[in-house]
Design brief:
The complex is a heterodimer. Chain A is an alpha/beta fold. Helix content of chain A is 38%, strand content 19%. Chain A has 13 helices and 13 strands. A 7-stranded parallel β-sheet of chain A has the order 3-2-1-4-5-6-7, with helices on both faces. In chain A, helix 9 (270-277) packs across helix 12 (322-339). The two termini of chain A are 12 Å apart. Chain B folds into 2 domains: 61-221, Rossmann fold (3-Layer(aba) Sandwich), CATH 3.40.50.2000; 228-390, Glycogen Phosphorylase B (Rossmann fold, 3-Layer(aba) Sandwich). Chain B has an 8-stranded mixed β-sheet, sandwiched between helices. A 6-stranded parallel β-sheet of chain B has the order 11-10-9-12-13-14, sandwiched between helices. In chain B, strand 1 (64-70), helix 3 (80-91) and strand 2 (95-100) form a beta-alpha-beta unit. The longest helix of chain B is centred in the N-terminal third of the chain and has 39 residues, at 24-62. Classes of the chains: A alpha/beta, B alpha/beta. Chain A binds chain B through residues 162-168, 171, 204, 206, 210-211, 218, 222, 225-226, 229, 231-232, 234-241, 244, 247-248, 251-252, and chain B through 155-156, 158-159, 162-163, 165, 190-192, 194-195, 198-199, 216, 411-414, 416-418, 421-423.
Amino acid sequence: MKFLFIYQYLSIGGVETIIKNRIKFFPKSIKIDLLFLYKISSIEIFEGLNINKIYIEKNLKKIKNIIMENKYDYIISIDTPQVHEILDNINEKTKIILEVHTGYYENREYIRRKNIPKNTKLIIVPSKSFKNIILSELNNYNIPIYELPNCVDKIFFEEYEFKFSKIISIPILWVGRLDSLKNWLEMLKIFKKLIEITKDINFELVIVGGYKSNKVDVDNFKYLLKEYELLDKIIWLPYINYYNMPKIYKMVSYRGGFFISTSKSESFGMTVAESMASKCPVIISNIDTYKELLDESKGGFLYELGNIYDAIEKINILLNNEELKNEKIIYSYNKALREFDPIKHTKKWLNIILKDN
Amino acid sequence: MRNFIISLKRKYIISLKIIKEEGIKTFFKKIFMKIFNKLITFTNNLKFKEFAKKTIEIAKEKDKIIIIISGVKFNSYSGNRNTNIALNFYKRGYFILFVYFTWNKKEETEIGFVNKGIYLLPLRIFMENIYKVLELFYFVSKKIIIFEFPCKESIDIISISKIYDFLVIYDIKDDWEEFYKLKEANWYSKNIEIFVCKNSDLLISVSIGLKNKFNDYKPFIVPNGYDPSNFNIETKIEISRENLKKGDIIIGYFGHLTSAWFNWDLIIEIAEKYPNWFFEIIGYGMPDGLKLPKNINYIGKVKREFLYYHVKKWDVSIVPFKKSLLSEHSDPLKVYEYLYMKKPVIVYGINHLKNYPYVFVANTIDEFIELIKYSKEINIDDDKLYKFLNNSLWNKRAEKIEFLINHISTQKNIFIITNWRFR
């Protein structure tokens, strides 16, 4: 069987991570090609995997040739409507699977316009709450939609030993693109207020992200770091090698810190899932997807989006209730083991797409 | 067209305002400066294109690059550490982009290749082209950026260089905060310096005092050094002491004379007390209006290669600094250079130097006087001295920095919040 995965960007984002995790556990009989329209970072994330070929091509004519020549059994297009016209005109033997992962409303315009290739067998989305959004955006369009939670790489479940002599500050970890959807401004506001109120604890805000962000957002971010007088409390890592991410989550947890997400919308919440697998406590906004991930608040703390005082209250509860914190960490970790395991995920994914074949 | 007319009208109104308020002379002066600056920008852009073309060839060949963000120019009288780090990493096969700060465009005189592997670029032009410049080195395997001072541009440079996979080093060579308190570094911001510390992959400091100050970030000590090729001491110089002012002891100093650290009161008091001791003071930055006794001879600036002509006739050398954190945290280059020229060193105000051979630290003025008398008579043991000096060569310092770079480069970024700070 020949599979082609198509995605817009080759970088180190959530979608590339999911593709990588699946490929790791595919049967060897499946031949895999990847096609990206734009290359933003190196191909390090796919190194050492059983991949036939990686194409970087934005020219639609050339993409058409690649697709025609290779006669794929399955083409999985992930939020890449640019190629839908090509997919509309290919051999019926090739089955099209659409995956919708983008939490950005404007990037789902193709869903609302029902720009769906005619051979599309089904759509896969990563969560129940996101499925509801897609269903309403498709507005009675007749196509099966399956929900399948994303998986988390095995390396996040592994233990990592640290040897330190002293801990000087409590880290608060925020991971994501610097844009309005990820809501970094709210993060800065929460952090600013937190250090104003909590004088007796030394906090450090670790920001991982900015690599793929818009220059205007990055400039605004830098401006506000100065304006809010946070420069001396920030560790900013615009780019992190994917394989180092588990160490960051575990390190934050080890030092008594936590992961925070201020997102306004998510299709799944990859970084939250990674935190859960890494036993890093989480405080996240109360959007539907996050409620689903944490089974309401069994696996972590939810704060009311936009309410920085609620976020601070949850931070104080987390820092002052070791038992409660550990309870939630264990709940989250077990859920991650159960539901985000890459082997189980890949099996389920294959079952869905090969169903009624 | 409409926009053009509006812009012309605006310029006309501004011109009239300048002529009316500041006079026709100022108006023409401003016009001239504007044209001059545009010409400079144009020339620099041309130079940048040339830079890009040549740089790609060299950097590809060397496959390792260091960008040095320096507070002073490459060919500056001060800032010897920055230049020596550049030269010694060049010798170790690195391509060096030496980016230096200037107060204004007129000072941007050093642009271009010093030799086949060191390129000089003003900070302003670097910042204007930072994405383009860093992208030039996309293919280079080993990429390092060293901050020699925590400039306000550090936030941009660090964040962008991390995107391009550079390893960031902060080389703490001075206590900038203390300089700032003494109104000697008005550009300084403590918050920016902490940001640089928190976000660097590796911190190095020149002294134990600075290491202790920044201990939360676990700096490694890499002291200053010296380079024998800077001094022409192989040449036989015969200087008759009779031609000099008479004195029992000839005492010498070279270096910065800023009142922020140079203890003028101490020197003047001793000179007045011992009129037959002769002081030779070489350097720059002497405070205005200072009245010196006759037995203190201020020479002014002397090029490094001619220093030995003066030092040779000295009996002892001195580092008479004021007692302060600024002094205590420094590691004066001159100490290594005095020792290389086989002169004992009497120090005031920098306690940690007592561990160096033939360096004597005084705590009071009387001790300072006694140590001058004592050290005039001592015999220097060459073996002991050269053992120390051999380990203090700039190439040994570069070797140590490179060792640290190799040690952490596999853990770039992750190191910041994992291992090194909490060892």
